[in-house]
Design a protein that fits this description.
3 domains, 11% helix
Length: 431
């Protein structure tokens, strides 16, 4: 043990007396670190350095793991929660642990991919594997940094759900998976919301996921203006489906906080991926898995038809879906000249009910199989309007056509010129 004079010399160049005492405390903690029952050997990593992506417990670490070994203390913050939520826990690293990384450090990717890109606080948004009292490793998420007078601590939460979702980007669909934390949305209601016209389910809760390129695309609506939906449920026949109703990326930089509002399960578009389930992923359930992706910006006239004439026809509808057994959809035809000026009035006298036709086809991922249904009164009902460039259409409650596309066409022949407009509507469930 050093003498009093040696201690004076050792700490003489360190600021105030308080700073000297803090340095002595840090040194004492380092020296006695492994004597604490709270000390753990942990492994820290991000989404891209996760070599056990399907697991949140019973995680093992071999000699060639892509995760970074780190020493930490696991501290229980509280044993109960007033809001009936998962209690928070503390994580504390050694005082000598680096929090700013250089190119030679294993965690340098945190500087380049997270701190500089998303303004993450130290370690926030990273996963960490922590062993319990039996030595079994569990996956946790580092949520916030708490600066105390003595030692810096981090709030952590256990990752309890593997989120599966589909994002639509640049006209393509991608399956995504990310481990995150579910949180209770404090709400004292009956689970039903009623206004003067209808009653709907009302159940809300929250989730926290790390912010990274995988979760950047999680938003209220997707690029086709549909509400983004996600299944969060036990693997049952009719799982719980939710719409994303709120997205927050600040002030907790490095995390994405999501609020969900309950939606209804659609057995014709939502479901399990049987291949992934067979591979052992029992949570491989995706909302809109069988959505045939009719985009809202579907061209209303084909390139061939456009080349036939400088005048073109656009068909408009207030939605890109038509529901079996649902109400009428109003379709409006508008005509434009080569300058883009509307000239619909010139063509209205030439339009009649016979100008309208429709057919059903498979979605664009399958072989085209067109079925003419214009005069199929058991399936299609037309309703003429006062203005001949408008018509209403509805489809009968026939589940045979679910997940297919209804193509509606308006054709006109004027002065020997054939002009055709087209719109595609996704056939969906009324639920």
């Amino acid at each position: 043990m050093p003498t009093f004079r040696e201690m004076q010399q050792l700490y003489a160049n360190i600021g105030t007396i308080g700073q000297q005492i803090k340095k002595q405390s840090d040194d004492a903690m380092e020296a006695t670190w492994n004597n604490s029952i709270a000390s753990r050997v942990c492994y820290i990593y991000d989404y891209y350095h996760d070599d056990s992506p399907t697991m949140n417990r019973n995680i093992t670490h071999g000699p060639h793991t892509t995760k970074t070994r780190i020493d930490a203390k696991f501290i229980v913050k509280s044993y109960s929660s007033l809001d009936k939520d998962q209690v928070e826990y503390y994580l504390q690293f050694k005082p000598s642990q680096k929090t700013q990384f250089e190119p030679t450090d294993e965690l340098y990717y945190f500087e380049t991919d997270y701190r500089r890109k998303y303004s993450n606080e130290d370690f926030v948004g990273l996963y960490i594997d922590i062993a319990d009292d039996q030595g079994i490793y569990h996956r946790w998420l580092i949520c916030t940094k708490e600066i105390g007078n003595q030692f810096v601590k981090y709030n952590i939460l256990p990752c309890d759900y593997w989120f599966h979702f589909i994002v639509k980007k640049n006209g393509k669909r991608y399956k995504r998976k990310i481990w995150g934390v579910t949180r209770t949305q404090s709400s004292y209601n009956s689970g039903l919301w009623t206004d003067y016209y209808s009653t709907s389910t009302e159940s809300q809760f929250k989730a926290i996921v790390p912010l990274n390129p995988i979760t950047e695309d999680i938003y209220y609506v997707e690029e086709d203006n549909k509400n983004m939906r996600i299944i969060i449920s036990a693997p049952v026949e009719k799982p719980n489906v939710f719409q994303i109703s709120k997205v927050e990326t600040a002030p907790l930089f490095g995390l994405k906080r999501l609020t969900f509002a309950q939606d209804k399960f659609d057995p014709y578009t939502d479901g399990r991926d049987d291949v992934e389930v067979a591979q052992g992923d029992i949570f491989a359930m995706y909302a809109d898995l069988y959505d045939n992706e009719v985009p809202t910006d579907t061209p209303f006239h084909t390139d061939t038809e456009t080349k036939m004439d400088t005048t073109h026809c656009d068909l408009l509808c207030n939605a890109n879906k038509i529901k079996i057994g649902g109400s009428y959809k109003l379709i409006t035809a508008k005509f434009f000249n080569i300058q883009g000026n509307e000239i619909t009035d010139e063509f209205v006298p030439y339009l009649a009910k016979s100008s309208w036709s429709c057919y059903v086809k498979n979605n664009r991922h399958e072989d085209p199989d067109e079925i003419e249904v214009t005069d199929n009164t058991d399936l299609i009902t037309w309703l003429e309007q006062k203005e001949s460039n408008k018509i209403k259409i509805k489809i009968a409650d026939n589940k045979e056509y679910l997940t297919k596309i209804l193509v509606i066409k308006c054709s006109i022949n004027k002065d020997g010129r054939n002009i055709v407009g087209e719109i595609q509507l996704q056939i969906s469930s009324v639920l």
